[in-house]
Amino acid sequence: MSVAFRRESDDEHLEPKFELPIPPGPNLVTVRGQAQIRARVTALEAVMQGLSDEDAIKATRRDLRYWRNRQATMQLMEDADGACVAFGSTVTFRLKGAERTVTIVGHDEADPAAGLLSFAAPLSRALMGAEPGDTLDFANASDAIVVSIHIAGRC
Question: What is the architecture, at CATH level 2, of domain 89-149?
Answer without folding.
Answer: Roll (3.10)
